[in-house]
Each structure stands twice: as C-alpha cells, then as structure tokens.
Amino acid sequence: MPGDSRNFATPLASHGLDPQGxxxxxxxxxxxxxxxxxxxxxxxxxxxxxxxxTGKRTGRSPNDRFIVNEPGLAERVWxxxxxxxxxxxxxxxxxxxxxxx
Length: 101
Hints:
single chain; alpha+beta; 2 domains; two-stranded antiparallel sheet; 3 helices
C-alpha cells in the first residue's frame, strides 16, 4: 500500500506504543524525501538525492545489536561480535525508553 497514511495505532498498541498523530505506513521514497525535507531532517542535493542531516549521531553502531538470550532461541543464534546476548531486564528497559520517546 504505497503512500498509505491510515492510522495504524491499533497494531502499534499491541507493542505498547501509543502514537499521538498520524502513522505513515509503507511510504514511497518520494514521499519520505519530501517529509524529511519539510521536517528539516535532510535536504536535496543538486542531483535530487536526499542528504540526511543526522547531527552528532550518524546512525546505529555496527556492534550495537543485542538479542535476549532465552531458552529455545539461544541454540539458533550465531553468537559473536554482532549478535550479543542480553538479559530480558535490559530489553525491557530499552523498550520503556522507546515508549517514553
């Protein structure tokens, strides 16, 4: 459903999220670029390419991926520098932080 901007608050609520406004779903790149420029999150280059302005934070750290180490999952994960185990309490804390944001 490209360009679909129906309110998807109900599915998000099943994840504990309660957005206060329109939720945009499956937008095409043109619409995403327009919104980013309008919100001051980027600008278009002379060639029409979106240049995102991220400020101090340039994105997710490549080694910042954690998976809750729970029974039935642990033996199916390729643990290492990328897939790091974490405890359920850490996940819950991060989820709470996301919900508050």
